[in-house]
Write a structure and sequence with these properties.
The protein is mainly alpha-helical and about 190 residues long. The protein has 7 helices and 2 strands. The radius of gyration is 18 Å and the shape is globular.
């Protein structure tokens, strides 16, 4: 099966969890011509959650789906997972105003692959973040984005830049480690 009902549920939960976790970091700004009465009548919790989910969820979900689809392309069975316990722990930390939040967006489990396909599966997620980052830069530099969405696209670009660099660190458990470890097995 291409995407199972459980994976769809995990993507929905991932989107809401990521939106909530990042809602303190990515707060919506009122438009230049906003009506204060209308703006402040809306629930800021839901508006901030929606805004941050629009920025962060594509970066996380597309990253994980890239791992899944590349693994499937090499004939592996791959399943996307939302880390429920990690989400619960990070949401708890956010609720008690813990000053440092760490985050695992999701993960993909797949059947065993040879070293080269395994390296390509590992780098697929970070490369997706790199492409989104470069696309955001292109949209902003060429003024292809509406002015009212400029900030959101800029934040999306910065987040994807961070995720690309962070995930490529050769630290055990990170995509960069799996990528380089698989390449070393080829030698």
């Amino acid at each position: 099966m291409f995407i199972s009902p459980q994976e769809i549920l995990d993507i929905v939960i991932m989107t809401f969890a990521v939106g909530y976790i990042f809602s303190g970091l990515f707060k919506r700004q009122p438009a230049e011509d906003y009506d204060p009465l209308t703006y402040y009548q809306k629930s800021s919790f839901w508006e901030d959650l929606k805004y941050s989910a629009m920025i962060a969820a594509p970066a996380i979900v597309l990253h994980e789906l890239s791992h899944k689809f590349v693994a499937m392309g090499f004939g592996a069975q791959a399943t996307l997972h939302a880390p429920y316990y990690m989400y619960a722990f990070v949401i708890f930390l956010k609720l008690i105003n813990f000053p440092l939040l760490f985050f695992v967006g999701g993960y993909v489990s797949h059947t065993l692959l040879l070293p080269l396909p395994s390296a390509l599966v590992a780098i697929a997620g970070p490369l997706t973040n790199l492409v989104i980052w470069l696309l955001c830069i292109l949209l902003i530099k060429n003024k292809l984005v509406n002015r009212k969405h400029y900030r959101m696209v800029g934040l999306m670009g910065k987040l994807n830049m961070f995720l690309f660099i962070f995930n490529m660190l050769p630290v055990p458990g990170f995509d960069g480690f799996n990528f380089f470890a698989s390449l070393i097995k080829l030698l």
